[in-house]
Amino acid sequence: MKKHNYFLVILCFLLINLFTISEAAAGNKKESSNSTFSIDSLMKNMEIDLRLNYGMYMHHHYEMEGYRAHFPMFELSLQKQTYGKSYWQTCFNYPAIGVTLFASGMGNIDVLGKAFALYPYIYFPFIKGNTNFGIRFGLGLGYLTESYDHVENPYNICIGSSLNAAASITFDITHRFSDRFKMSIFGGLQHFSNGCTSEPNKGTNVIKGGISAAYMINEPETYIKAEQLTEKMTIEYLKEFRPELYAGLSYGYKRIDYLQKDYTSVYDFEIYVMEQITRLFKLGVGFDLIYDETNILRNIKNGEEWTTYQIMNPGFHAAGELLMGKTSFMFVLGKHIGDYMYTKENYQRLALKIEFTKHFYGKVTLNVHQWHIADYLCFGLGFKL
Q1: Per-residue pLDDT tens for 343-366?
Q2: Residue 199 burial (CB count, 10 A)
Q3: Cα 45 to the chain's mean position, in Å?
Q4: What is the pLDDT of residues 139-183, one digit of tens each?
Q5: Residue 345 and residue 361: Cα distance in Å, rounded?
Q6: Which of 360, 270, 356, 280 lies closest to 318 in space, CA to CA?
Q7: With a threshold of 0.90, does the pTM exceed it?
Q8: Which residues, in sequence order, are bridge partners of residue 209?
Q9: Which of 23-32, 208-217, 266-275, 333-342 shows the lowest mean pLDDT across its residues?
Q10: I want to staple 190 with a disulfide (CB 3.0 to 4.6 A). Which of 111, 179, 206, 269 is the partner?
Q11: Cα 282 to the chain's mean position, in Å?
Q12: What residues does 152 pair with on adjacent strands?
């Protein structure tokens, strides 16, 4: 992978981590007239969490059935238990936000190597009490010590690069034994893949389960109830029609063949309108214009000519946005229009969006077609007009 591509992957990871840092350390403006970042505010309700996992490979492709192993995994996390400094925290039942360090021998299978990862996560409790049940999502940067090589490692058909996206989802049952100590049992899925930036890209899926123990470093803060906050929007405000217009440009890259020397670029210009329909959710529609150099490469291989017009893929989409402070998650369902080369008719997107200022945002997006096939990962900047 070229150096500039390493830079983009690391930029993606840093942008995702801004979610954890900004939401965990930012103070409530109503709490202090001089609300700024400080170590004291960061350490409020901070916990150390150790998770012991045991897992096995899920053979989501027939040719991967040769990878049979049971193995341990370890996670050491620093997490912050929210207590209602922002309105969204009270609405989601005071979730926990953290960053975890993951390590595993992955069954000591030589062709697959070992796995290491560092990623932020968020835990949503469904109920709140001494015993609760919830779901935890994590996404960040992973490193695998072995990847596919047609000469030195031809049997690794899962991963074509050392740097990968690392994703985790678990369902947790947690019991609090005291104000500062709690334990959990959990089960879920650990995933590594490179988002189609390199071939092969089947990815690895590991079914896992385990136990965890968390200890709060300082005395816990008192939970702030929603009615104590003044930042929440009124019903009258939400009833008013206040459409917001956004425009942005994203860049992605991918490689469709293992022996392809250079990565091909993808550019996506988007313009969309969103309307806030609840305190935590926006709904909107938009237009995409996608320039995918992969289409040029395919035509060169087939000995065919092309025009710029043919590789400009327009599409319309509907979008939903889940709001969590300055951070939000976007879900996009789109459809291309016209008859363009090698274009999948429908496309889907999952995006993490962060507002840097009132009018400027950044976004990391995974583009998918046919609901489950990763197409490319892209990084974008945009303006709220």
Answers
A1: 667 899 999 999 999 899 999 888
A2: 18
A3: 24
A4: 888 999 988 777 787 777 778 778 888 899 999 999 999 999 999
A5: 28
A6: 270
A7: no
A8: 54, 187
A9: 23-32
A10: 206
A11: 19
A12: none
